Amino acid sequence: MRYVKSLIVLVAVVALAGCAKKETEMPKKTFGDDVAFLRKYTDVVLLSDSSGNNQVAVLPELQGRAMTSTAEAMAGLSFGWINRELIASGEIAEHINVFGGEDRFWIGPEGGQFSVFFKKDVPFDLEHWFTPAPIDTEPFELVSESRNRALLKKDMQLENYSGTVFNLRVDREIRVLEQNEAVEALGITPAKAVKMVAYESNNEMTNTGSKTWEKETGLLSIWILGMFNPSPATTVVVPFNSGPEDKLGPIVNDAYFGKVPAGRLVIGQDVLFFSGDGQYRSKIGLSPQRAKPILGSYDAVNKVLTIVQYNKPEASADYVNSMWELQKQPYSGDVVNSYNDGPAEPGAKPLGPFYELETSSPAAQLSPGESVCHTHRTYHLQGPEADLDPIARATLGVTIAQIKAAFSR
Question: What's the pLDDT score for residue 15?
Fold first, then answer.
């Protein structure tokens, strides 16, 4: 393997007052810059649509992640967050290797009695939290590649907190969509001034063992996380199903790292806004009763609207719970999540900074040979706000002005 890693300190520094100004003035890295950097340390599979403008960089050795993408070829803006310091360091992290990437494969649950991140009977804290090697440091096999798609696979064995052993295979396809496919899936045709790249990962997890995965001993789920570059004016937008809490439950879970301050989470009638500025460590999640099969973000500095779609089976109610505690309801977890990086403790470097848009499959109760599939589709649309506005309305149900007004900056 030619890629390299460094030790991550899982804490972050308090943002300084002048950070916002400095961020807006920093030169933007192009997709070509990022690809050239990555090629120094690992194999890069470049995928594109037929125009050649819309490209995605896939890294088989880094767990087959879609690292970054662009809508304007090598000279275009690079949308994915890349941890250059870590990749270039030459050291191996003990707890997690936060390489970055717009679409990376993980497996849940992260916490609880069925967690695959904690060994049996240890405390649920950062000292005892370890990302399983198959989804952190081990390469995926590149099965095949063509102009617009890459097929990868990985055989794994995982053990959860309760001692259940899982044997499984992951098959992963990353495919760049043609513009007509993207328009059809998006449901609206962007104006000519809007540049758009769209791609999807199709992920399949198969039980290759001899025993059925049972709820009583723990289930797994496919978990896709997208890591993006923050800006001082990035806002995550999550539409949700409105209705009373006594029927649908709480609108949002914001207790992952302590309650999110009101100035960073705004809940409307059927949509919520969450700050993605990379300056305050926080996380939110929505249940299957509340989540819709779409979420997104808007970066008002770079005029980039990001949309994420995923397949959400209507009949599925069981989703693994990733809260760091022994759980009374291990299958009442979230379907979609968003994480904003920031200070866990004063005086240390941040993990990124970055922000994340995440989606999960239902908990997989699989007999030997059975599979669960999860599709996660990402769009980046860049252009004048007047042209992005109808797209935001049609997909997220809000205007660009409403997104920008959610937080006073």
Answer: 30
Q: How far is CA 82 from the centre of its chain?
A: 13
Task: Say if residues 65 and 378 touch (Cβ distance below 8 Å).
Answer: no
What is the rounded distance in angstroms from the CA atom of residue 62 to the CA atom of residue 130? 17
Place of tokens 């929505």: 286
Beta bridge partners of residue 337, listed in sequence order: 285, 358
Question: Comparing C-alpha atoms, which of 85, 84, 49 is closest to residue 70?
Answer: 49
| Rounded Cα distance, 308 and 54, in Å | 17
Question: CA torsion sign, 92 to 59 to 278 to 378?
Answer: negative
Q: Are strands 304-310 and 371-382 parallel, antiparallel or unpaired?
A: antiparallel
Determine how many CB atoms are found less than 10 A away from the CB of residue 172. 26
Residue whose C-alpha is closest to residue 67's, from 89, 88, 93, 87: 87
CA distances from 267 to 205, 232, 256 (A): 34, 20, 17
Query: How far apart, in whole angstroms, are the C-alpha atoms of residue 149 and residue 246?
Result: 45
Distance, CA of 343 to CA of 347 (rounded, Å) = 9
The residues facing 291 across adjacent strands are 240
Q: How far apart are CA 70 and CA 57, in angstroms?
A: 9
Those residues of the chain that have pLDDT short of 50 are: 1-26
Separation between Cα atoms, residue 23 and residue 233, nearest integer Å: 10
Contact assessment for residue 368 and residue 211, using Cβ atoms and an 8 Å cutoff: yes
Give the per-residue pLDDT at 406: 96
Q: How far apart are CA 142 and CA 306, in angstroms?
A: 28
pTM: predicted TM-score of the whole model, two decimal places: 0.92
H or E element, residue 245: helix 245-248
> By the 8 A CB rule, do 209 and 366 touch?
no
296 neighbors 287 (Cβ within 8 angstroms): no
Which domains, and CATH codes, for the chain? 19-405 (2.70.98.10)
**CB of 179 within 8 A of CB of 189?**
no
Q: What is the pLDDT of residue 316?
A: 83
